[in-house]
Design a protein that fits this description.
Radius of gyration: 16 Å
Low-confidence stretches: none
CATH architecture: Orthogonal Bundle
Strand order of the largest sheet: 1-3-2
CATH class: Mainly Alpha
Distance between the termini: 31 Å
Largest sheet: 3 strands, antiparallel
CATH topology: Arc Repressor Mutant, subunit A
Shape: elongated
Amino acid sequence: MYRKELLKGSTDTLLLALLAEEPMYGYQLVKEMARRSSGYFRFKEGTLYPALHRLVRAGLAEAKWSGSPSGQMRRYYYITGKGSKSLQEQLDEWRQFSRAVELVMQPVP
């Protein structure tokens, strides 16, 4: 199990990465996150919706009510242009960070 602090720093990036592929509604995001992480990430409403609202307030995502194929109205979240740019910056930073961590963790030859 991961430490909550690790997820807290990555939640926005993970959500933007999913929304970059397609608009999704809340429950769909929860299921997709769990599926892609092989169950490692199991978002709860108390984590998901504050993060989505934060992304909307920051202009990184927007939300629109829309009918689902079953006819039920759902609030879909979409990444914005600003969100796409931010995601790319966050991914670049993550790659640099993870490379640096790996370098430190490797045994010295």
